[in-house]
Amino acid sequence: MTPPIISAATTLTASPFGTPRAVSPVAATQIAFPTVAAAVVPFAVGLLVVLGLIWAVRRGIRARRGEPGPPDPAEQPRLPATGPVREEQRTREPDDDPRA
């Protein structure tokens, strides 16, 4: 059995069985994109995803512009005149528990 003639346009790749085989770059391209739709559909879906994300960001910016701004310093909460409120810790007695 004579080995096949390999042209300059073909490359050798290892097959799963360990023997090299000749693969033409044109054949690999034809396998990767059997139709134009196989190349155009993923691009179109990606373009739609990007356009959807751009639309969502612009809509979010518009929504934030409609919200009220942060409060003025005069509207901020202040301490009571009696000073800061302290926490109280104590252990409740059994008769102090509220009945439901």
TrEMBL record:
Record keyword Membrane present: yes
InterPro entries the record matches: DUF6479 (IPR045513)
Gene source species: Streptomyces hintoniae
Top-level taxon of origin: Bacteria
Residues that span the membrane, as ranges: 38-57
Keyword terms of this UniProt record: Membrane, Transmembrane, Transmembrane helix
Name of protein: DUF6479 family protein
Compositional bias (Basic and acidic residues): 85-100
Annotated stretches, region: Disordered: 63-100
